[in-house]
Design a protein that fits this description.
By secondary structure, the protein is an alpha+beta fold. The chain has seven helices and 15 strands. Bound molecules: N-(5'-phosphopyridoxyl)-D-alanine. N-(5'-phosphopyridoxyl)-D-alanine binds next to α6 and β13. Pfam families: Aminotran_4.
Length: 276
Amino acid sequence: KYVLIDQDIVPKEKAGIDFDDRGYHFGDGIYEVIRIYNGKPFTINQHLDRLYESAKKLDIPLSTTRETFTELINELIIKNTIETGIVYIQLTRGLQPRNHLYQREISPVLTGFAENLERKEELLTNGVDLWLTKDIRWLRCDIKTINLLGNIMAKREAADHNCHEAIMHRDGTVTEGSSSNLFLIKDSTLYTHPATNLILNGITRQVVIKLAKEAGLHVVEEAFPVDVLAIADEAFITSTTMEVTPVRSITGDVSATLEIGPITRQLQEAFKQLLP
Ligand code: PDD
């Protein structure tokens, strides 16, 4: 297995992380997960745009060019002979003896890996069960930070209730999943939380909104209360790894049993058409 460290791709055993890495001390870093289909990175430019945005929002200096990132990502894919999988790219603020106050002069540390990950055919066909719980995260969920405690706690809680994914609500308003965005469908209209500071604006979310509009569907980017989940006609979650995955039930703070309906199927199909 070959991994990326700074600008080099080396065997995993040869790569080490420094003890003084701020990512390790403070979770002071950002990341992206990019899907690989047929050996090619999917929507790589949108992911790189978001990486630059996250870096800017956190005042992390990022001088690596888009061309370099693209080359490094492609090299990771080739060296690891990945056909269907993911690339993970992480950037921490860099090395500094532990101190809350960060210095602006330090150089970020770039790491990454690629691994095989098949499309989740079974889940794409049969759907997933969701666990609805409180959103206890901070108020900058728009930044793709590696600091994911609220997310991983919600995910564990979901798994402990035999659910595949957690979806979260802030004071009764549905936000997003622990690692996905949520859409619901009522009377042929799609509803999803707007891209504010309270959610991560998923690349898959953006692709699906575009596909839905192209198909003539009405898309409303407005926050909705948890009770609406119980009267939805259909629902699905989106993410790089899960694509468009239907929801078959919701338990936790609200209970609902859902049909996997025609609009979800239509959008799954439209998404699949985009894959290389
Ligand atoms: N997670 N919301 C959150 C909190 C996420 O962590 C993710 C992605 C998404 C969906 O974004 P996208 O469509 O760009 O993948 C929404 C990635 C896959 C992860 O952490 O593994």
